[in-house]
Design a protein that fits this description.
The complex is a heterodimer of chains A (294) and B (293). With 294 residues, chain A is mostly helical. Chain A contains eleven helices and two strands, in the order H-H-E-E-H-H-H-H-H-H-H-H-H. Chain A has one domain: MetI-like fold. Helix content of chain A is 78%, strand content 1%. Chain A has a two-stranded antiparallel sheet. The longest helix of chain A has 43 residues. Chain B has a domain of 70 residues. Chain B is an alpha/beta fold. Chain B is globular and about 55 Å long. The chains are: A mainly alpha (294), B alpha/beta (293).
Chain lengths: 294, 293
């Protein structure tokens, strides 16, 4: 009996450790594959080609700068639109709303966070794109509506439930005693929220934003449906953009027919992979530093 | 007595231990300034609770409480968990307002104002009160900013005023010498006992009319506890203090008056020494001698 149980314990340990290796191993294999397949490109072309902004695969120009700029522009726009709204909403829910309201909103957020991106994309095509086109007419800017702004709006809408949900969890984790202390000193609810709750929660909120960034940066389908996908540097909110992820999704079919296309796309994928990774790492470092300073 | 068995208790009636006859004087504590019965009893009323009932939803948590706290005295609220002592404490600065479904009737006066009057400014009221909680909870700010917070909330910006208040409060809380060279470091870097004294300094900075303490030592080791107790004794000179405690020796050591609560009712209130040596009510005696609770 005793021996059986010990064996059982050991078996679970081995299994759990194996699972860990598998998960990490797969991520490692993914990264290595990208690197290996991108190598021909990285080796055979001058870096300047890859870093340039000319994209003409038939002529052998594979500049990715346009796409990186497209990804960044859409993501930053989306975060700029959604983060302030999400933080305010989360603060309202955690600091001001009744428990009843909060308990009703939370499941709705979870459902909204799980809506497939193609649904957001369709919504974008049906409502956001015409809306942006109308706004463009109003302001006298020629636009089809398929634009950076449409991409940012759809992405903001998509990221909001997730960011809000994480931010709310972070705020609710702030000890009640801190709020009570501030209130007992005569701070108003919002003073308490600004001075004490936000300050205590700032690390967690940063993580919420960064997780939102990583997701938004890699998001493909919804953005691709509304952003226009023209390989030009995004210069206007009403003009089109072409994010990295959309490039991959749109052109992987041509990979085999054009020489060195595969290497170019693999480089794009590697860039996407590294960019999200780098952002997450940076956030972890900042968080650690903050913790130390207290 | 079987600990699980409820003691047979007569219908509780709040009573005031008889005032002493003229000339009778008691020394209340071994440490600090002795206080005569007369001095304590004649102190002008600072907090007055009258016919206070409190309901959480349908459950009544406080039943017809009547209690008076004299200026510059220490009132200890004792009783078993859930007896309503913390709830009463939180009525004095209207912290119960923050809980949904609370209904309160009756009157609480602090100084001259009825704090449950409909036109009362709750924020302004809380500014006049200091509160120290069970768990020390410095804000995630520097030591200086922790202490200055109450004044900052009141709109004080003058650096000299803030500096003076921070130093005075930290000295009062017996923390100045330990932290004067690191006022700009985080308050979270202090030890547990230091953190609690920081919280006391924070409460003192606004020169509160009443200092409310909710089991301020329950998370501290005996050494830190005794420092805080000494502090309470000194603070009495300048402040009126109401302290909730589970520790009856502590109540006996630091307070002038003690009020014993049981199941939301005030069973007995009186001079601490009298209540502990010669309680009027059988329940009080059972509780302080450790027979229940």
């Amino acid at each position: 009996m005793r021996v059986d149980r010990r064996w059982g314990d050991a078996a679970v340990t081995v299994l759990a450790r194996g699972a860990l290796f598998l998960v990490f191993g797969l991520a490692l294999v993914l990264g290595l594959t990208l690197l290996l397949r991108a190598c021909p490109m990285l080796g055979s072309l001058e870096r300047s080609t890859l870093l340039g902004s000319a994209w003409a695969p038939a002529q052998g120009s594979f500049g990715l700068r346009t796409f990186l700029a497209g990804s960044l522009a859409v993501t930053v726009l989306a975060l700029g639109l959604s983060v302030p709204l999400c933080l305010l909403s989360a603060l309202y829910l955690s600091e001001h709303a009744s428990r009843r309201l909060r308990e009703r909103v939370q499941p709705v957020l979870d459902v909204a966070a799980g809506v497939p991106s193609v649904v957001f994309g369709l919504f974008g095509v049906m409502f956001v794109v015409p809306g942006v086109a109308a706004l463009g007419r109003l302001l006298g800017v020629p636009t089809t509506g398929y634009s950076l702004l449409a991409g940012g709006l759809v992405l903001a809408l998509m990221a909001a439930p997730f960011t809000l949900s994480v931010a709310l969890d972070v705020l609710l984790a702030v000890p009640m005693g801190l709020r009570e202390t501030a209130l007992a000193m005569g701070a108003t609810r919002w003073e308490t929220a600004w001075h004490v709750v936000l300050r205590e929660a700032r690390g967690g909120l940063l993580v919420a934003v960064v997780m939102g960034f990583a997701r938004a940066f890699g998001e493909t389908l919804a953005v691709m449906m509304v952003v226009g996908n023209v390989a030009v540097l995004p210069t206007s909110l009403f003009g089109p953009a072409y994010p990295l992820s959309a490039l991959l999704a749109n052109t992987y079919g041509e990979m085999m027919s054009i020489p060195r296309m595969e290497g170019a796309l693999m480089s794009a994928a590697l860039l996407l992979f590294l960019a999200t990774g780098a952002v997450s790492c940076a956030a972890t470092l900042v968080l650690r530093r903050m913790r130390r300073l207290g | 007595m079987d600990l699980n068995e409820r003691p047979v208790i007569p219908e509780p009636v709040p009573t005031i231990t008889e005032p002493p006859r003229a000339g009778e004087a008691h020394i209340l504590s071994q440490q600090g300034t002795p206080l005569t019965d007369r001095a304590a009893l004649e102190a002008p009323t600072m907090v007055s609770v009258k016919d206070l009932n409190l309901f959480y939803g349908r459950k009544q948590a406080l039943h017809g409480i009547n209690l008076e706290v004299g200026k510059n005295t220490v009132m200890a609220l004792i009783g078993p968990s859930g007896c309503g002592k913390s709830t009463l404490l939180r009525c004095i600065n209207r912290m119960n307002d923050l809980i949904d479904n609370v209904r309160i009737d009756g009157h609480v006066r602090v100084g001259q104002s009825d704090i449950y009057a409909p036109d009362v400014d709750v924020i302004g009221l809380r500014m006049r009160m200091g509160m120290v909680f069970q768990k020390s909870n410095p804000f995630p700010k520097s030591i200086y900013e922790n202490v200055a917070y109450g004044l900052r909330v009141q709109g004080v910006k003058n650096r000299a005023v803030l500096d003076e208040a921070v130093e005075r409060s930290l000295i009062s809380a017996g923390l100045w010498d330990e932290v004067k060279d690191r006022l700009n470091e985080s308050g979270l870097g202090l030890s547990g006992g230091q953190q609690q004294r920081l919280c006391i300094a924070r409460a003192l900075a606004v020169k509160p009319e009443v200092l409310l303490m909710d089991e301020p030592c329950s998370a501290l080791d005996p050494l830190a506890t005794s420092r805080i107790e000494e502090l309470i004794f000194e603070l009495k000179r300048d402040f009126t203090i109401v302290i909730v405690t589970h520790n009856m020796q502590q109540a006996a050591r630091v307070s002038d008056f003690t009020a014993f609560f049981w199941m939301g009712k005030l069973i007995e209130v009186g001079l601490t020494e009298k209540l502990f040596t010669n309680p009027r009510e059988r329940m009080t005696e059972d509780y302080i001698s450790g027979r229940f609770g």
